[in-house]
Amino acid sequence: MNPLDMMKVYGRVAEIYRLRLGEAVSAYGTAMRGAASAFAAAGRPQDPTGAWRDTVSYTFDAAQRSLIFWDTMRQRGNNWIAHEKAGKPPLLAFDYETIADARTYARPANYALVRIQPPEGVTLDPDKRPFLIIDPRAGHGPGIGGFKADSEVGFALKAGHAVYMVIFFPEPVPGQTLADVSLAEAEFVRIVRERHPTRGKPVVMGNCQGGWAAMLVAALDPDNVGPIVVNGAPMSYWAGNDAENPMRYAGGVLGGAWTASLAADLGGGVFDGAYLVDNFEYLNPANTYFGKYYNLYSRIDTEPARFLEFERWWGGYFLMNREEIKWIVENLFVGNKLAAGKAEWAPGKTFDLKAVRSPIIVFASLGDNITPPQQAINWVADLYPTTQALKDAGQVVVGLMHESVGHLGIFVSGAVAKREHAQIVDLIDYVEALAPGLYGMTIEEDHSGPEVKYDVTLTERRVEDLAVLQKYSRKDEIPFEAVANVSEVNARTYETFVHPVLSAVVTPEMGRAMRAVHPLRAVRWGLSDLNPFLAGLAPFAEFARGQRTPRNEDGPHAAAEHFMATAITAGFDLYRQMRDATVETEFFRLYGTLAMVDPDLTAPATTAIVEQSPVEVASALAALREGGFTDAAVRVALLAQKRGGGQQRLSTLKQIRELVGQEVGLLALPPDDAQAVIRRQSIIVEHAPDEALATLPSLLPTPEARAHLLTLLDRLLANIAFGPHVSDVVYDVKRVLAESPAGQGAEGQDAEGQIIPFPSYAGQAV
């Protein structure tokens, strides 16, 4: 890069930095002005008696709150110690039994398969496929998918599905690798399928890190994995928006993957999950150091139980082997090799996501700053750069986007479980019947009755439209390629010169000692009954709970407290925004230059894409006249869907299945055969819709078959309020069948046997 270009890069980066600092200062000023206005409104003059009462009540209330607050912190420490002594079992709200333990496998791993016991009053449906839920091993322990009754586990059970979970133990088996883990999870899927042989392939649901783990399993063993649900799972690791997703710059600023190896070496060859939790807490210092504690203090009469429940999970730190974390960071977070098909699980063997043939539901949130929606969904465009490429591959991807919930809320929020996860579970029975393509899933609410009712709408989207998630373009991902290259150099240097020394000096015992004094652990055992200064706190706190003195929430003292809380939060937020802007600026200043690109984030990316049709397309088009009644019915449904713009309602799909599902014949086929029919007919309708209609008589050679199809179509029209596109398709089908005599195989062909497309006269007088 010549000096002039380099000055141009630095100038643009500096301008972006200046703008972001201005935004940070403006946000701070807005927060402080709002807090000051609220404080001024509450500071109206009071008579001396009222002012005295307000002061006394506030003082007594503050003293009681403080006692209860610190006693809650003591209970948190005691809970942490008890959980550690118990071996950190899964924090599930359900009973379970262990089915398989991967520690006994030929390639052992610290994972196990458990079956969730349905609670009293819940009956499982023997005809419904089982669920297998994989929780994240990202610093914390398992259980987040079944943390509450209203959870992924809870709603799957309520819907009648047998539910299994993949759990893991606090310490890894010596020598285990990510390949061992993936192979063990693939074996768990096989076991679940064998236990329910008549129900179809298991649904595999993964949360966060468990999401990409589910995709790895599906890539290893696509024949046994059913529909896949990935919740808040990072898959496209370089993606994100500038000024919104600071975590994606951490690897570059720290020089790549060598820091994970260093942390593992300092742990005696074991990586401490507390470091990963540190990364999460780093994102929002206002909440980490003040917000969650002030929330506890300000709601001290109702919040402690929820606080303690969540902190039991948040404070359970699990370990990884050095090779595991090294593989994850090098191949995924820094290398971004998964979607590119370059992540090796054995020499010469890679995880190929294009091998996954099961439908995939992606649940992400615009409010998630740990796994932003770009990281959750952009891998689709990486694998299938065009909509046609996705359809030709026969893949179904459904995207569900929440407007605001944070990362953890995707898994633990009861409201999200009732609204989103319950509808995902409901959709599972129908997702395999969708034609290949990308769908947007929206949830509609009906509040007309005593209980909220939900319905799901699936709208066909274009892969090219995923670019709307980018504030500017994906051009700002180019410098991450330079990060990957720098990381490889730094990692080789570290492994050559530093690792041999540290591995010889730091023993496993020293690693355990260092983990014990990690700040996240020390703050818990330091505020527990192990601390003699807290020995007499419990009785005073209990007395305070029984003698609560209400305060005047509208008084000047409470207003001053709220003002100070707002000021502290705004100060932390100002620091965070300035820190993130600085880190991001230095990232692009360094790696933008190394990548020799102009980081003009306002310029749209232009990529020339050549669509290629696989052999399956040619095979499907060659079989235009092949098939029977089921193929014909599916083809008609797909023609109607295509003319209707690809929008479908789940309630309508349920009605269709109830009215004609058994007679179409699709449900009677093995799931793989049924999907093959749908994929084949979808390709035909997508590439040759006119010929698909013209050759329909060849699939229905007898008068009985044609009459049966028309009877089913009339039944649907009589019972369901379809749009006019369905009536048009039915009209065309009737016309084509009427113009082609039954029992002859050459209808719709000229003398040379070429297909003659029938023009559509729907809605016109003939």
From TrEMBL:
<dbReference type="InterPro" id="IPR029058">
    <property type="entry name" value="AB_hydrolase_fold"/>
</dbReference>
<dbReference type="InterPro" id="IPR051321">
    <property type="entry name" value="PHA/PHB_synthase"/>
</dbReference>
<dbReference type="InterPro" id="IPR024501">
    <property type="entry name" value="DUF3141"/>
</dbReference>
<dbReference type="Pfam" id="PF11339">
    <property type="entry name" value="DUF3141"/>
</dbReference>
<protein>
    <submittedName>
        <fullName>DUF3141 domain-containing protein</fullName>
    </submittedName>
</protein>
